[in-house]
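Morning. Coffee machine broken again, so started the prediction first thing and wrote up yesterday's gels while waiting. Chain of 82 residues, entered below exactly as on the submission form.
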Amino acid sequence: MNKWNRLLATLDQLFGFKDQKKSTLRKVSQTFDERTNEHVVVIEYRVRRGGDGVVTKNRKQKQISKLKLLSKLAAQARAQGM
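Came back before lunch.
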């Protein structure tokens, strides 16, 4: 087991998601901070959980709601104009 896999396993234990499907770890960037004389490594840890689904909005329903609102506003404008 290499060091990255050990770090991934440690993060999995640390955060302890019970219904975890998959986790990944990647190095995003690495720089040197001259002011503090330190190496800075930014990593990204992602977890896909079993019960999580993608939440999407129904675009068609949103358009229908807008049309209903516009028709109500148009009816009110016609009623006020008479």
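The two ends are 80 Å apart (CA to CA). Going to sketch it on the whiteboard this afternoon.
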